[in-house]
Design a protein that fits this description.
The complex is a heterodimer. Chain A is an all-alpha fold. Chain A has 9 helices and no strands. The chains are: A mainly alpha, B mainly alpha.
């Protein structure tokens, strides 16, 4: 739905947005039928809870129903809806978190004055490659992602889980692509740090 | 020669093939003599693979009719 979609509203979107702003009933239905499946899929992956996933998507649509004039055509309907659903999902995820966010600097590699790693990396357990589909490993990765600071976590999620390109991720988060790139690398490094002990097969 | 700090900073550029041939050669010269950075590189790749595997999490991709109807019913 999103990858490769034009950044601004295309011709079809423009017509649909005009109809939404005119509060045409069948335009609302067309939008809901077109976008619900991909939006629910994103929301389900992020929240891992069907009721919450549906609530986040429902809220995004209510935004259009109640204030269709907020659709100004500066972005495609898909991007607009994705932003709204993402915002709703993040709000719900924040409410679940009872731990203070960790500083990204605490999770990045440290170096000696001569540029070497202070804690040299050690190879992870080889059996990880065979277990990547295992539910326990998925849970571990998911929990580690949840421990990342939100600004990094969401970039990692959109790029590596949702598979969005840098430009689309930048549009959704209103960040320039260079910053997306920096945050993605740091998020991966921080996640590496969080997974390091369990993935070496050692108790923390 | 590059230090480990620079190797880890430019790891994603290296893996994405965004380094120039000259930069790549310097990068690989370091990897040839630094087992710590080789281990980090392998672990970083695995980290990315583990995250991407979450995209395959079984998750319904449908738009349940009852949900669509409830949304449409909420129109003012």
């Amino acid at each position: 739905m999103l990858v490769g979609s034009p950044p601004n509203a295309g011709r079809e979107d423009t017509v649909l947005i005009e109809r939404l702003r005119a509060r045409e009933s069948d335009a609302f239905e067309a939008v809901v039928r077109l976008h619900t499946a991909p939006l629910l899929a994103v929301s389900r992956r992020l929240l891992d809870d069907e009721d919450e996933a549906r609530a986040a998507v429902r809220e995004a649509y209510l935004g259009i129903f109640q204030e269709p004039e907020t659709l100004d055509g500066s972005c495609s309907l898909a991007i607009w809806l994705y932003r709204k659903v993402l915002g709703g999902c993040l709000h719900r995820l924040r409410a679940r978190h009872d731990k203070p966010a960790r500083a990204i600097e605490d999770l990045l590699p440290k170096f000696l004055d001569d540029g070497r790693q202070t804690q040299p990396a050690r190879a992870w357990n080889e059996c990880l490659d065979k277990q990547s589909d295992g539910p326990a490993l998925r849970r571990l990765v998911r929990q580690a992602i949840d421990d990342l600071p939100e600004t990094y976590r969401i970039v990692l999620w959109l790029r590596d889980v949702e598979g969005l390109d840098r430009e689309t991720t930048g549009q959704i988060l209103d960040l320039n692509p260079a910053l997306i790139r920096t945050r993605l690398h740091r998020a991966r490094q921080a996640l590496h740090a969080l997974l390091d002990v369990p993935c070496r097969g050692e108790a923390s | 020669m590059m230090a480990c700090r620079e190797i880890l900073d430019f790891l994603m550029e290296y893996l994405d093939g965004n380094l120039s041939p000259a930069q790549r050669a310097i990068f690989e010269e370091h990897l040839a003599v630094c087992p710590d950075c080789v281990a980090y590189l392998h672990n970083y790749r695995r980290t990315v693979k583990l995250v991407k595997s979450l995209a395959d999490t079984p998750s319904a991709t449908d738009a349940p009719e009852d949900f669509v109807k409830s949304v449409l019913a909420a129109r003012p």
